[in-house]
Amino acid sequence: MYLCDKAKHAGWLCFPVLRRAGADRRPVLPTMFLQAMLTRKGCLYGYANADILFDESLAYSLESVLSSKVLEESALDDQPLFVTSRRTRVKNVTRSDAVDLVALRKKCEEKGVMDTEWAEDVFITSSNFPWITLPDVVIGLASYDNWLVLRANELSRRTVDIFETTLVVHQSTETDDLDRVRKVDFYNRRLITNMYGAYNDQRGRLLCTYFISN
Q: What is the C-alpha to C-alpha distance for residues 120 and 205, in angstroms, rounded to an integer?
């Protein structure tokens, strides 16, 4: 409750996790989106892993996406919008780095490493994205992120990677790669395969979105 109280004090709304799945009962991503949509009416809804930091460039990028004439002309207005981004991995981000955007950007320039096109920790969609139809994939485990980009491309031509214009910082540690190996769990892949059949992760890389920001 301590973190929830701090978040509320900073102006955030906090909700209990309504649905969990998998062996270690992780939060179900589609349910998180649906809960937010029922609580607040808006044009965009988003999720990012807890170890991700942004600066104001996220807002500028999303404003540009929403006002893009290219996106308007590329697809029917009723097609859902799906936005994601590559991330910059920065080791040992301090508390002072996290609250000082100038310091954060400087640390990214000096020590940041652009992650591969396989790593996706940010998902932002329009309210008409059909989260209710998707399987109960859970956050923090492999295989759902690339499939989600693949599925978004099947549903719409309005898929955008905003990494060129957005600072997305992944707070990394020396043990990240080891921790990732230790928690290999194929819950998401089994779930998706049972529902949709086998799929190719390569079709869900960040290079596969229809558009990139610039």
A: 8
Which tokens belong to 22?
A: 């998998």
Count up the domains in the chain and report the number: 1
The residue segments making up the domain with residue 131 are 48-74+81-212
- 137-153 tens-digit pLDDT: 999 888 889 999 999 99
Q: Is 22 part of any domain?
A: no
Residue 131, phi then psi, degrees to nearest 5: -60, -30
Domain for residue 30, yes or no? no
Mean pLDDT of the 42-67 span:
93
Residue 193 lies in a domain: yes
Q: How far apart are CA 152 and CA 26, in angstroms?
A: 23
Which range has the top average pLDDT, 6-15, 53-62, 165-174?
Answer: 53-62
Residue 152 is assigned to a structural domain of this protein? yes
**Identity of the residue numbered 96:** S
Write out the chain in H/E/C secondary structure: CHHHHHHHHCCCCCCCCCCEECCCCEEEHHHHHHHHHHHCCCCEEEEECCCEEECCHHHHHHHHHHCCHHHHHHCCCCCCCEEECCCEEEECCCHHHHHCHHHHHHHHHHHCEECCCCCCCEEEEECCCCHHHCCCCECCCCCHHHHHHHHHHHHCCCEEECHHHCCEEEEECCCHHHHHHHCCCCHHHHHHHHHHCCCCHHHHCHHHCCEECC
